[in-house]
Write a structure and sequence with these properties.
The protein has 145 residues and is α+β, with helices and mostly antiparallel strands. It has 2 domains: 99 residues, no CATH class; 45 residues. Helix content is 39%, strand content 33%. The chain has 3 helices and 4 strands. A hairpin with a 5-residue loop joins strand 1 and strand 2. It starts with a helix and ends in a 5-residue tail after the last helix.
């Protein structure tokens, strides 16, 4: 069975999208600074695709000729928008630096691991202090002597 003309249109459009969008479009090439910090650009990629066509009967048929009339078209579009940079520093750890200055939520999400680590540290100190107080109370208790 021969390939329908719309299949050729779709294959061409999909091959074009494949050439335009790959993983390096979303996560860019890493750049390393002299102090060992690695900066990776991150982008948001959106794309759209449309194809359509139609078969129609010719008005006149010529004897001994197989007539196949087709009309169609396809199109695709790609948009690449920089979102921010992933900064991997030996001194400051991994942080996401958004391109837009109003990205409060992104900054909050970036601070969550640091905040949890500080809370856990405070809880350890509190538990340690509570155990010390309990030991001191037990030593000075009249029941201890």
């Amino acid at each position: 069975m021969s390939e329908h003309p719309i299949q050729g249109l779709m294959k061409t459009a999909m091959a074009s999208i494949k050439d335009m969008v790959d993983v390096n479009t979303i996560v860019g090439d890493a750049v390393e600074t002299p102090d060992g910090t690695v900066i990776i650009p991150i982008s948001r990629v959106t794309f759209g695709f449309a194809a359509g066509g139609g078969d129609y009967e010719p008005e006149e048929t010529v004897a001994d000729q197989v007539s196949h009339s087709f009309g169609g078209g396809s199109g695709a579009g790609v948009s690449v928008k920089p979102v921010g940079f992933l900064v991997c520093s030996p001194t400051n750890g991994v942080r996401f630096m958004p391109v837009e200055g109003n990205a409060v939520y992104d900054r909050l999400i970036d601070l969550v691991p640091q905040t949890l680590a500080k809370i856990q540290e405070m809880m350890k100190h509190k538990d340690h202090d509570s155990m010390d107080e309990l030991a001191e109370t037990a030593e000075t208790s009249p029941l201890h002597s």
